[in-house]
Specification:
Layout (H helix, E strand, L loop, with lengths): L1 H16 L2 H7 L2 H10 L6 E2 L4 H10 L10 H17 L1 H11 L2 E2 L8
Antiparallel strand pairs: 1-2
Keywords: Lipoprotein
InterPro entries: DUF1375
Protein name: YceK/YidQ family lipoprotein
Length: about 110
């Protein structure tokens, strides 16, 4: 019984750490941009309103490689992020009007 609870909590924490809304709303902007740069996304910036959904779409718009994100997990997270982003809409509208988009400033790889 205790092992099941530990496993469930581990899976939930891994899902939350990959959640787009957690990365963009609950963490600072540098953490979100660092994560997107690590995945080598082509996005230049993401809006703060529905930022979790935008974060996930940016993950899908990254350079394809074998070490990247799991597409089914991102698709499931888009739905969850959309629901949480809707709940947080008043806060993110305020942040959008105050601070603007989250700039990613991805630099192209040098050849």
């Amino acid at each position: 019984m205790n092992m099941k609870v530990t496993t469930a909590l581990s899976v939930m924490s891994l899902m939350l750490s990959g959640c787009g809304t957690v990365n963009t709303v609950l963490r600072d902007d540098l953490a979100a941009t660092r994560e997107l740069r690590k995945q080598k996304t082509y996005c230049q910036s993401i809006p703060r309103v529905y930022s979790g959904v935008a974060f996930d779409f940016c993950l899908l718009n990254a350079q394809p490689d074998f070490t990247g994100v799991l597409v089914p997990a991102v698709l499931v997270d888009i739905v969850a992020s959309g629901a949480v982003d809707t709940i947080l809409l008043p806060y993110t509208i305020y942040r959008q009007s105050t601070y603007g988009n989250i700039g990613i400033y991805w630099q192209a790889r040098r050849s």
